[in-house]
Amino acid sequence: MDHVTTDSCAAEEDECSDSEVLCLMRVGRNSDWLRLFENTEITIGRSVDVSYQLLSPTCPLMISRQHCIFKQTEDGQWTVTDRKSLNGVWVNGNRIPADEAHQLRLGDSIQLGVPVIGTKVEFDYILVQRLLKDIKLYLAKGQREGAKTAHATKKPKRKLTMEEVEPSTSKSKLYRCSSADKSTATPCPLSPVKRQQRLSHSLPEETTPSRQLRESNRLSGDSSIHCDLDNLQMYSQNILLLREQVDDTQRQVASLEGKPCQADLLKEEQVCELQGQLDTLRAKMHRMETLEKSFSETKKQLEEQKTQHQEELLKKRLDDALHEQKKVIDELALSRQGFEEILLAKNKELEMTKEEKERATAQKEEVVTQVTEVLENELQCIICSELFIEAVILNCAHSFCCHCIKLWRKKKDECPMCRQPILSQTRCLALDNCIDSMVDNLSLDMKARRQTLITERKGESS
User: Which of 216, 267, 274, 362 could be disulfide-bonded to 263 (CB atoms 3.0-4.6 Å)?
Assistant: First the structure.
């Protein structure tokens, strides 16, 4: 059923190869373009269960497991949604909010993640619309397509013939049991006849030069350690079987040689045959012991090489970790230097602002002092020693408060300053307005005092 679906999808793509499709064109590369299929949610991340899996070779955590989703709305517009990723989704240079669908347009720049120091953004795309036949070679395969490819490349199992099954190199079959755990299973026992047949078939084959060459080549790599251990165990079992067979043959020879001399020619032939088998078995056992020694030495060498390889890997990881730590320290030092420069600039600005404020305050105080001096020297009534309240000008051009000169004229009808007769007095609104505008810049105490005097004098006149 899956095969039929795959074929139909491929046919549809071939038929629609002249149509235009939307895709994310990767900047700076002619590959790994991401196609946006209509009416389909396109998920992107470093997890396995996404539409397109993105893995960063330089920074593995740059892309989150579920980084973002591209989805088509009902009106045909495409949107992108950030799934609370660590390094965010950037559209036209601005990071979009998490869990909010952002509408896209043709030509928009879409960046997944942030640039590492000294490099550009690794996953940088542009939303474009192209003919399918023009960009088919550039498109990246999604997770579903990879699964279909893996399913299509599976080969059917082939039954092995009896000649291909080699009893000498294969392990003994385990007892069949209903339990799923086969860790406690044991090999099937062999009868003495089958055991002898197995040795007679396996030992000559194992001692041939081609077999030795194949075994030595197999031992050259680290990946064949388990196979070599299995072969070593098999050779140890074969040596034990050979020793048992040698003992049986020696007992048979001893029993035949101990019989009376009237044994016929058949017994002599049996003795010679058993003696030849005994010599052959001893030679085979010697070769097997030699192989066992060579396997033991090779096993030790492989373990030493494995230990050295692990040490080298640990050293390399330690060097990488130290290098990364040094880079982080350098970055922190640069950041600290930048912050110090910013603080110095802010301190200078604060100092300049403080100086300007002090200068403005001094100028204001100076102006207030001058105004106060002018008021005290020129705009005071000599009778009450206060600022003019309803100032009047006499015919002699001297100015006094209206209330003060009124009280003075009850005693003397002459100017308090020049002693000329007072013929006329006139209100001076200009002095009143000037004094009122200058009093606004004085302290609150002076304002309150002047208001109190005005109120008292109005009460007395009424």
Answer: 267
Helix and strand element counts for the chain (H, E): 10, 14
**Contact between 405 and 425 (Cβ < 8 Å):** yes
pLDDT > 90? residue 6: no
Burial of 265 (0-12, 13-18, 19+ CB in 10 A): exposed
Q: How far is CA 358 from the centre of its chain?
A: 51
Sheet of strand 68-72, all strands in order from the earlier edge strand to the far edge: 52-53, 42-45, 68-72, 78-82, 101-103
pLDDT digits (tens, 9 = 90+) for 24-67: 999 888 888 999 998 889 999 999 999 999 998 888 889 999 99
Q: At residue 130, what is the residue type? A: R
What is the residue-wise DSSP string for 356-412? HHHHHHHHHHHHHHHHHHHHHHHSB-TTTSSB-SSEEEETTS-EEEHHHHHHHHHH-
For residue 52, what pLDDT is reported? 94
Q: Could you tell me which of 272, 282, 289, 277 has the C-alpha nearest to residue 249?
A: 277
Nearest CA to 126 out of 21, 36, 31, 24 is that of 24
**Could you tell me which residue, 387 or 248, shows the higher pLDDT?**
387
pTM for the structure as a whole: 0.33
Q: What is the mean pLDDT of the chain?
A: 76
Q: What is the pLDDT of residue 215?
A: 47
Closest CA to 141 of 222, 278, 37, 256: 37
CA–CA separation, 169 and 171 (whole Å)? 7
What residues are paired with 79 via a beta bridge?
71, 103
* Vertex 223: Cα angle to 218 and 224 (nearest 5): 35
CA–CA separation, 110 and 24 (whole Å) = 8
Q: How far apart are CA 205 and CA 198, in angstroms?
A: 11
**Token pair 């017994």: residue:** 267
pLDDT the model gives residue 313: 92
Closest CA to 268 of 277, 259, 278: 259
Q: Is pLDDT of 222 > 70?
A: no
